[in-house]
Amino acid sequence: MTGTEKAGYEAGFAHLFENAYYILTPCKSTTDYALDRMFGIINAIGGIPCVLGAEEHDRITGTISHVPHIIASALVNLVRESDTHDGKMQMLAAGGFKDITRIASSSPEMWESIILSNKPHVDAILNEYVKIIERFRNSVTCDDSREIYNFFESAGKFRNSIPSNRKGLLCPVYEIVVDVVDKPGIIAKIATIIGDNNINIKNINVSNSREFEQGCLRITLPDVESMNLAYDLLHRHEYKVYKIS
What we know:
alpha+beta; 6-phosphogluconate dehydrogenase C-terminal fold; 2 domains; two-stranded parallel sheet; 6 strands
């Protein structure tokens, strides 16, 4: 249960499986010896072995991975098909929109195969998702503010309860956002503070949208330790800093 939105051998890295769940689906003919061997291999590469039945595996991954990929791609296609002739939606679709649709950049060849191989579960889960959307649309139509509030509140509580110290099907992104004034030298100044403390910056960019975030300078770090250290350093230099998780 790991990876990135990139495809191919070049997208791999040494610690890909580190702290990630590796699901095994033994059948009736699987021996204890074979299972033990797989446990040893998974532990050796830093993964966390987990045993599930094949049906349970397909239902769970369909819900937490396969259908979310469909939803992310549907949102991107909605913007693409609804955009104005001069591309204003594409121009403004930064910040939160890019975060929640990151997985839409995954390999279409791979996901075509995955979706079709799990067709029964994907179909059933999509039906359940459509029911949720229909209920929410009904709440909007009826001006049911309480149900709208409950919809977002329950989702937020459950999302915040999901552990952040385990990898999922996509590796987590460790980012901080810095609230800065757009002026010459500000990026170099912040990068120097971080770099002088031997923290590697994977990516840094200025966001023109502050949707879902308080700042406009987004900095991607390689791991959670680097993110926390960079956050503390910039906070001590009296910058307004926010973690994206």
